[in-house]
């Protein structure tokens, strides 16, 4: 039975004078049997017991070192104890050769210090979504005999806080036969499901030491480019989940211009704390847990831990709540942002293994991504650098490496972001997915990916490609314009993956618009013709799309293009605007932008052929400020338009 006898209270005057030490001394007097030396605490461990150790930066360093020291001093005290945890930052004394007979690691997630041991067969890995781990404990599928955890000092009511690590720690202390607690004044007193009464603790060891800190160093150019792309996808009022590492940190740093963000995440990092301090994260628009940042654990710096201490705006909850897809799916605009090691051209991704080598684990990624997919207006965003091993291998591959675990299926990802752009996969067929992913792969691997995609019948067998710099997408030419009628459009160069968008656009045109643009009665637009628009040498021609956004889907509303004539140093120009969007100034903006780009190339002017009865196009050219020479043929004006 849990002992929750009232703790002798203090008057207001004494309470003002008291601190953590005084509370501890009062509890020591009330519960002398709980305050014991390490030897007495560890004497309660039996051979074959399962010993749970707190997570990440909440790992009880002193307890862990003392436990291993105890086994070295008393090598026959117990054998074959199973050490269970999620994540460690480097403190793995139980893996030393001297104590191999005493301990065997079984981890729910693999980190750098345990990776070699797992892959060499000297430690075990249990593959499971972290949201399901507490259920293993509560149902006794994985019984917990002893829990070694770290807490804040007690308050005047006898409650300690699990601090920065609630995740699966809550379930472990609920289920353990023996709870051994390191009380540490450096552990912040956090709110949420973090409180534990002294009566629920069997052994208390008071030892102060700074908490472990986790830093990823500064971001680089690749991480910053990815961060800028992801920031485009995060809407004001969205609730975000972000993982850990160099790229997630860079992503968070690019969210400083957003408003009213919420947080529902597994990990609370320095970056998230920074957004809270800056007022970017206020959680005011969350559909559940309004006004609260919700997290399972924190790994960061001492300043972040100080920020979390007694901060009622942050609620630490167990992973069976934070990572539960049924909970996540209730949050409007839930935006899950995670990283991957490798992705194939159909949209499958692994974040847990490199071929047959176990690298990390399932973790919480799949739960958050699936929850976000199910959430109203939710988004799942997968980020990855385009290459690994100093650019020697592509992370986007024709098929996942043999033995790789499929962390995310083809239906789990809306967006894929690399340093080369944003690929949208949701609702796309395999051909469209492959072309989108090839577009954001590293340029030097695109020809290989195209060949492999053709061999696997994922894309058209005659799919063309312009290699090298000539075919590299000029992202710097993307620009927003607002027309005279207030219509906002994105003007951007055509991409290799835009064939489906252009197909929809051309088939949306009326017969008259098609005839006026192509001076032909031909109405079909097969793949062969569409390739002429999307596979271009950007140094010799330009195709600019006028694009609007229909929720998450781009819609082409106008197309302008020119092709350079090197002999005259001019370019032939042509434009067409969708019937629904005519007379809104889109054609004017397209022509202005094409003119600007042509002038930057040093061209002297444009040439064009315009049907005599196409008065709207003639007016557009005549009002553009060109010096125009006009020659009439058989129902067509041949125009030579020199720049002023």
Give the SSE layout.
Elements (H helix, E strand, L loop, with lengths): L11 H6 L2 H11 L7 H5 L7 E4 L7 H13 L7 E5 L17 E5 L4 H8 L4 E2 L7 H6 L7 E6 L7 E3 L7 H7 L2 E6 L7 E2 L2 E3 L5 E4 L14 H13 L5 E4 L3 H8 L8 E2 L3 E2 L1 H8 L15 E3 L1 E2 L3 H7 L5 E3 L2 H4 L2 H4 L5 E6 L2 E3 L4 E2 L2 E2 L2 E2 L6 H10 L4 E5 L3 E2 L4 E2 L1 E2 L17 E4 L2 E4 L5 H11 L5 H10 L23 E4 L5 E6 L5 H10 L2 H8 L8 H8 L6 E10 L2 E13 L4 E8 L8 H15 L4 E7 L3 H8 L4 E6 L3 E7 L2
Parallel strand pairs: 1-2, 1-5, 2-3, 3-4, 5-7, 7-10, 8-16, 11-12, 11-17, 13-15, 14-16, 17-22, 18-25, 22-26, 32-33
Antiparallel strand pairs: 6-9, 18-19, 20-21, 23-24, 26-27, 28-29, 29-30, 30-31, 31-32, 33-35, 34-35
Helix pairs in contact: 8-9, 15-16
Could you characterize what this model shows?
The protein has about 650 residues and is α/β, with parallel strands linked by helices. The protein has 3 domains: about 10-205, Glutaconate Coenzyme A-transferase (3-Layer(aba) Sandwich), CATH 3.40.1080; about 220-465, Glutaconate Coenzyme A-transferase (3-Layer(aba) Sandwich); about 470-640, Gcn5-related N-acetyltransferase (GNAT) (Aminopeptidase, 3-Layer(aba) Sandwich). The protein is about 30% helix and about 25% strand. The protein has 21 helices and 35 strands. Strands 28-29-30-31-32-33-35-34 form an 8-stranded mixed β-sheet, sandwiched between helices. The protein has a 7-stranded parallel β-sheet with strand order 4-3-2-1-5-7-10, with helices on both faces. It has a 6-stranded mixed β-sheet with strand order 12-11-17-22-26-27, with helices on both faces. A hairpin with a 5-residue loop joins strand 28 (about 480) and strand 29 (about 490-495). The termini are far apart. Mean pLDDT is about 95; it is low at about 5-20.
């Amino acid at each position: 039975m849990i002992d929750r006898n009232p703790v002798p209270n203090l008057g207001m005057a004494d309470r003002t004078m008291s601190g953590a030490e005084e509370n501890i001394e009062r509890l020591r007097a009330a519960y002398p049997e709980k305050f014991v030396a390490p030897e007495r605490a560890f004497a309660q461990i039996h051979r074959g017991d399962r010993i749970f150790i707190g997570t990440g930066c909440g790992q009880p360093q002193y307890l862990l070192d003392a436990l291993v020291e105890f086994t070295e001093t008393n090598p026959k005290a117990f054998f074959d104890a199973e050490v269970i945890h999620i994540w460690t930052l480097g403190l793995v004394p139980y893996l030393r050769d001297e104590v191999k007979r005493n301990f065997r690691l079984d981890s729910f997630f693999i980190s750098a210090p345990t990776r070699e041991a797992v892959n060499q067969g000297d430690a075990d890995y249990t593959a499971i979504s972290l949201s399901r781990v507490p259920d293993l404990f509560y149902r006794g599928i994985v019984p917990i005999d002893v829990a070694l955890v770290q807490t804040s000092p007690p308050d005047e009511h006898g409650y300690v806080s699990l601090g920065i690590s609630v995740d699966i720690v809550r379930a472990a202390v609920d289920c353990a036969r023996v709870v051994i607690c390191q009380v540490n004044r450096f552990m912040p007193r956090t709110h949420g499901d973090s409180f534990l009464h002294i009566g629920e603790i069997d052994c208390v060891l008071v030892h102060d030491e700074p908490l472990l800190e986790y830093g990823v160093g500064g971001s680089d150019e690749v991480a910053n480019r990815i961060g800028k792309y992801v920031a485009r996808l995060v809407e004001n009022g969205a609730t975000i989940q972000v993982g850990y590492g160099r790229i997630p940190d860079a992503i968070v740093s690019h969210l400083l211009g957003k408003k009213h963000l919420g947080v529902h995440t597994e990990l609370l990092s320095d970056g998230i704390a920074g957004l809270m301090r800056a007022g970017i994260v206020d959680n005011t628009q969350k559909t559940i847990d309004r006004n609260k940042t919700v997290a399972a654990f924190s790994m960061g710096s001492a300043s972040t831990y100080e920020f979390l201490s007694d901060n009622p705006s942050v609620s630490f909850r167990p992973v069976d709540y934070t990572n539960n897809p049924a909970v996540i799916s209730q949050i409007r605009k839930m935006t899950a942002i995670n990283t991957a090691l490798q992705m194939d051209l159909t949209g499958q991704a692994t974040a847990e293994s490199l071929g047959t080598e176990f690298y990390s684990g399932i973790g919480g990624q799949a739960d958050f991504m699936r929850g976000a997919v199910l959430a109203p207006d939710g988004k799942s965003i997968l980020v990855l650098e385009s290459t690994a091993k100093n650019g020697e291998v592509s992370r986007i591959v024709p098929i996942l490496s043999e033995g790789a675990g499929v962390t995310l299926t083809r239906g789990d990802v809306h967006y894929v972001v690399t340093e080369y752009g944003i690929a949208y996969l949701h609702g796309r067929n395999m051909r469209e997915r492959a072309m989108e992913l090839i577009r954001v792969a590293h340029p030097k691997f695109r020809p290989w990916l195209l060949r492999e995609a053709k061999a696997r019948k994922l894309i058209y067998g005659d799919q063309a490609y312009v290699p090298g710099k000539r075919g590299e997408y000029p992202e710097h030419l993307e620009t927003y314009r607002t027309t005279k009628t207030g219509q906002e459009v994105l003007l951007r160069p055509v991409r290799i993956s835009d064939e489906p968008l252009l197909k929809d656009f051309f088939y949306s045109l009326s017969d008259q618009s098609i005839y006026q643009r192509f001076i032909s009665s031909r109405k079909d637009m097969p793949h062969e013709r569409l390739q002429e628009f999307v596979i271009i040498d950007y140094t010799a021609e330009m195709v600019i799309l006028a694009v609007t956004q229909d929720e998450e889907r781009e819609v082409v509303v106008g197309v302008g293009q020119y092709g350079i004539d090197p002999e005259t140093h001019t370019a032939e120009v042509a434009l067409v605007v969708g019937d629904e969007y005519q007379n809104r100034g889109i054609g004017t903006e397209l022509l202005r932008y094409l003119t600007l780009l042509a002038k930057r190339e040093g061209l002297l002017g444009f040439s064009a052929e315009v049907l005599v009865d196409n008065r709207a196009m003639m007016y557009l050219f005549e009002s553009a400020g060109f010096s125009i020479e006009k020659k009439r043929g058989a129902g067509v004006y041949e125009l030579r338009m020199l720049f002023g």
